[in-house]
Design goal:
about 200 residues; mainly alpha; Tetracycline Repressor, domain 2
Length: about 200
């Protein structure tokens, strides 16, 4: 049992170190040597748990997806009577995860950099988003020219934008987190998709 527990701790340390490396330098900039040093694990132990950097990337996405599904379930379970308000709550919850968790940020980045080797992080939250948008349409909260699939695509781009911005913005703007950016941008998006003149979520 002690050996198994030690192996689990080692694996978790490697995933965390790999996520931090990917978050900071991207997939190509994150080296196995740097990851092993950061995790304080030998290269032999690293390759015992993960045969390649691709396997580590997959593990990052799997861990981020589990965390995201849990957060999504919490948000949707406490959803208000308005599905569109629930969409906003979901987006804010996801944006806060991007601010708080390097594993989630790394998974979001990997979804763009290496979609060929790992399934997208988006698959852990897009189904719930689509369900909420269909409910919003049924409740008459969406404009007739704002079909749920198109809105879901727009929202996915919005979430990507708030994750990317700190990586590309001028230094003085990088302190603005994903949740703050989402709070600033969502009212404009909501105004364009909501059936009412103003979206007061």
């Amino acid at each position: 049992m002690a050996t198994q527990a030690r192996g689990t701790r080692t694996r978790e340390a490697l995933i965390r170190a790999a996520a931090e490396a990917v978050d900071g330098k991207g997939y190509h900039g994150a080296t196995l040597v740097a990851i092993s040093k950061s995790a304080r694990v030998s290269m032999g132990a690293l390759t015992f748990h993960f045969a390649s950097k691709g396997e580590l990337a997959q593990a990052i996405v799997d861990k981020a997806a589990a965390t995201t599904r849990e957060r999504t379930a919490q948000v949707t379970a406490g959803a208000s009577a308005s599905p569109l308000c629930a969409v906003e709550a979901l987006l804010q919850g996801l944006a806060r995860l991007l601010d708080e968790d390097a594993v989630v940020r790394a998974a979001s980045l990997l979804a763009r950099e290496r979609p060929d080797i790992v399934p997208g992080w988006h698959s852990s939250w897009v189904p719930s988003l689509c369900q909420l948008l269909k409910a919003a349409e049924a409740a008459g909260e969406l404009r007739p020219d704002a079909p749920p699939p198109a809105v879901a695509g727009l929202v996915a781009h919005l979430l990507t934008a708030v994750e990317v911005h700190p990586r590309t913005a001028p230094a003085q703007e990088r302190l603005v987190g994903a949740a703050s950016a989402m709070a600033r941008l969502w009212p404009f998006v909501c105004h364009g998709i909501a059936a009412s003149p103003a979206c007061k979520t």
